[in-house]
Every structure is written in structure tokens, then in C-alpha cells.
Amino acid sequence: MTVTPPPIAQRRPYRHSYHGVDLDDPYFWLQDPGYPQVEDTDVLAYLNEENAYFESWYEPHRGLTQTLFEELKGRKPEQDESVPYEKNGYCYQWRFNAGDQYRVWLRQATTDDSEHWSTLLNENTLAEGCEYFRLGALTVSPDGTKLAYSTDTNGSERFTLQVINIATGDALTTAIENCAGSVVWNADSNGFAYLLVNENWRPDKALYRALINDEDTLLYQEQDDSFFVSLGLSQSEQLMFISCGDHVTSEVRFVPRSNLLAERTLIATRREGHEYDVEHQGDSAETGRLIIRSNCNHPNFDLFETPLATPEEAHWQILLPGNDSHYLMGHIAFADALVVCLRIDGLDQVQIVTDSGSHLIEFPEPAYSVDLGTNPSFETDTLRLAYTSMVTPHTVFDYCWQTKALTRLKVQEIPGGYEASDFVSERRQVIARDGAHVPMSVVRHKDTPINGSAPVYLYGYGAYGHAIPPSFSSNVISLLERGFSFAIAHIRGGDDLGYHWYTAGKLRERNNTFNDFVDCATHLIDSGYTQTGKIAIGGGSAGGELMGAVVNQAPELFGAVAAHVPFVDVLTTMLNPDLPLTPMEWPEWGNPIEDEEAFHYMRSYSPVDQVCAQNYPPMLVTAGLNDPRVTYWEPAKWVAKLRYTKTDNNVLLLKTNMGAGHGGQSGRFTALQELAEEYAFFLAHLAPEQ
What we know:
CATH architecture of one domain: 3-Layer(aba) Sandwich
Distance between the termini: 20 Å
Number of helices: 13
CATH class of one domain: Alpha Beta
Radius of gyration: 25 Å
Oligomer: single chain
Number of strands: 38
Largest sheet: 8 strands, mixed
Structural class: alpha+beta
């Protein structure tokens, strides 16, 4: 079969100048001036040509892709359900029914001993006729009679909020467009707070909607273009927090849930670089204490406490200190216990603090990932946890801190069977070129040789202080059983080893992230896991930027690349303050408009700017037309420039989801189809015999 020739994007002269430097951008025209509406016929024609080329290349590989899809789907139970939890007299649960793409949400009165559960919301019904569907908020009123839920049907992350009577399904208020998803009910269940996003997709307004008259009252509006607003309810359910911030600075106010229109109380005035978040421990909105996680003293955060009546920073008293090895990541306050999530020397831990002392929960493996599960109650002695490791499927535990008993409630089902003993997992320490010790998690089938002959899939992210946990994936089994090893590079830019690990990979230290990843790849070669040119790499969003930077730096190491919604036009995007996220992103990347040094540093690594005449590995690039985070034209411009500049004949594919956004296709099976395409791409280049 003849493969359609790759599209060649037009080059149209365009130049802009900053700090005395002329920047030629011949693919600037791919940015539709009407964005977020994309209607330019030339733009759409080019994206459709790229999609046609993608389909043409995949045609001979459809059999493999379908085989992989059936494998991936076959490891997902046709029917699945969550562990129920109790809230205000009801048990709640979600279920996947056989063949369903989306969840059905159900509940049952705690006094009901029958097997009948009533349907609260059926996502499948809401998704009918939609190319894309995502549920945002799903919040039941305290009296249990009303439901607020929000939906996104195009991937733009502009949600439509609906409020219904649960018993009848009748709408209780007019639908609210352009919401951010969060909803907090007031204590009387007759009104709620929600967020609106502006034209630049920034949640900047918190409003209160009264059901009695369908009228809105502005609670808070943020004037700083770089700050996002969020809403949250304390675990005690006595206070609503209105938080605002960017990636490094925060500011929190609170109001009693009994009166969301009350005067807001500010906790600590924003100052650049000060991050804090707040919990309340008390049985009313007038009593108890605030527990505050703050980096005002130590970059790994401390926990402070202060009486609710005196929330100002001057009254904060140290409760639990962080240090260079103890990184405090979050906390939740129950009536009789404080639960702290932390990492000690890079390993997840959960600390329980009560009046009688404190202790760490003991887990069954030396290396794992653990997080909080659904914990709706304030009066409890039990904590729900989500646990996994590279070889242990996702497991739900309940932990009783009175008895220190860890009870397993559910283990992820792998249809067809799974034997952890068939796989080997280890934690490697990679010595980076500057001497830093970079962790890397690796898993392989026990029969995969360590003699340099096998391929490896190396994954990374490395931004925003977001760690990639060493967790189980039933999907990657398809590669492991075909002789691949799978590795996660815990590179700087994430907070895997503490807050300093994050700051060592941002702003003027950004190149550490890329160097760490390349050094991890080299370590895999030197350790016998693989050889040069047999490493598949993947990453999305900022991880896609990582892909772009490392293929510019060391293209010879890699045999196949998957870059999903990649943030690759870093400099041009950060020079445009009118784009949705740019002002908020300056603390992460730098402000090249005002800071000439930041301009030159950013230009030195921005993947689009550093594309050069050299050989590049085979590459699969994806985009979402409605993506508000990484706009579609970034990957489109990158692919166009690569195709014009590179010196090889390796395949370069661009797939744009014309009806989706940052997360790609929705639906549990549709999303697996895209993953099957990625795996088929890897296999076609690194294991063609399969």
C-alpha cells in the first residue's frame, strides 16, 4: 500500500523582535486569530492533511494496533465498581457496566439492607451524541436532596453546571456556562458557591447562587492576571476556603459554611514565593484551630497551628516541622487526628498525629506509592488509602489509627490473571552529569535479558513540582510481555525528592530536567538494559516539552518518540501575555518580556527554537484542537519545522483530535485506542518482528 506523502506546511514570512533579537516564525499563521474558535480554512485544511497522513501511515499497522487495543481492553474488567463510602445517611459508589465508556454514579440509604441502589447520575446518558465527554463537579447537597454537576463536551475545560432535584430530575436553576468545575453547597442546601472562567480560561470569579431567586452574588474576584481562584471545603465542613495563587504564591480566605455571604477572613496576605494551604479542626465555624502548611520557614514546608479566632501569620505556632529529608506535601484534619502526607528521602509516607503521639503507617513493600482515598467523614478513626507499586495493582486500604490495622478492601482486577512474581522491579540511582543522584524506577518481565539486546520505554515529566509515582499500570504489560523494560525517570522539576528537586528544574535551572532524562537513558544503556537507538520515550504537556528538548540534545539515543500535547513553543508562548495561561506560567519558566536573561535562556532550550538540521528519531505527536493548556498550534508548528529542517527520512506523525482537548479522547475504551496507537508505533520501530 502507498502511504500518503507527508504534508508540507506553507512558510509565510513573519517576524517579531524582542531585546534586539529578530525571531522568524514562518508557521505563525497556524495560530487562528479567532482562537478559541478555530475556523481558519487554511489551518483546518493543514491539520486535516496531517490527520490523513497519520491514518495512511497506520494503515499497515492496524492489525497490530487492534491486537494491542484488545489486550489493553482485556485487562480492564467489563464491570467494575468503587469501594462505597458513607456520607450524610447514604452510601455512594460508581460503577462501570459492561460495554459502558463512562461511569454510573449510585447511592443507597445506609438503612437500606437490600441490593437496590438508585442512580444518581449516568455519565453514559449525558455523553450520548458527544465526541468528547468529561464530568467535572459531582456534589450532593448536605440534605441529600439536590445534586450539582458539571460537564465538558468538547475538551475546552469550560464546564456547564447543572443543579437538579435528585428525586425528580427537575432543574432547580438555570444552567451556568463557563464554569471551572468546583461547587460548594451552603449548610442549608439552598445555595452554592461556584467558579467562573474568563475569556482567557482563568477562574477569576467566585459567586454564590441562591436557589430561591436564581440570583448570583459575587463573593470574590481576582484582579491579578497570573492568579487562579479555587474553592474548597474543610474536612470539618464548617468553613469554605477561597484560595488564589499561581505556581509559587498563594493567598487564602475563609467564610463559615453556614453563611457563604459572610465577610471573608484573610489568613495571610500574598507575598511572592510564599505557598500555604489550610485545614480546620473544630466542631463549629467559631471554634477549633486552623492547621496551615507553609513554606515560610523551610522549602519542604512546616505545619503550623493557630486558633481560628486569630488566623493571622503573627499567631502561627509550629506544630510539625519539615526538614531536608522530610517533605510535607499535604494534610487532612479529623476530629481526633491529624493526617500528614509526606515523603521521607523520596518515599511516600503517611503520618498519624493524635493527642497520644504520632506514628507512620507501615506498608507491605519497601518501594511503593500511596495517597489519600475518599475520606468524607470528620468524626472517624479510619483513613482510606490508595496504594500501589510498580508490581502491585492499585489497592484500596482502610487504616484504623486506634488499632494500627491496615485492611485491604479492593485490589485492582486484571482479567486473564496477573502474577506479580513474573515481573522484577527496582529503584536505580543515576549519577547525573553534575553529580546529582537521580532516582529511576524500572520494571521488566523476569525473562527479559539485561545484556543490551532488549528495548526500553522511558517515561518522564519533570515540571510544576509534579512527581510521577512508581505505580502499577496494567497497560504497560503489553510492552513488558514483548520484551520491553519500562522506566520512570524521577528527574528534577518534579518534587520526587522534596521541594528543592522542583526548584532545581525550573527557571534558570530548567536544563537540569532535560540533562537528567538524557543521563537516565545513558544509564540504561550502560547498565545493559538496552542499547543506543532502542529506547522509546514518551511524555505529555510539559513532558512533551521534555521530549522536544532531549531529541534536540541527543537524538541518536532514541528509537521512537511519543510527544502528547507537547509544550514545545515555549518562548513564543511566554512572550504572549494574552494566551490563557501565560501570566500564571511566568513563575515556572520566567518572563521573557521583562527579563532579557530569561529570554535568552528560554530560547536556548525551547524545542521549536532549537530544531536544527540533524537526524531525528521516528516521532508521534498529538494535539487537541480545543486544548486550553497547550494550544494546538504548538505541536503543529513544531512538526512543520521539524519536517522542513531534519535530515532523515524517519516518519513524523501529527494527530490532532479535532473534538477534544488536553487529555485526548475521553471514554475508558476510546482512550485505550490512542494508547494502542502509541504502543504500535513503538513496536513498529523497536520490535518490528512483533
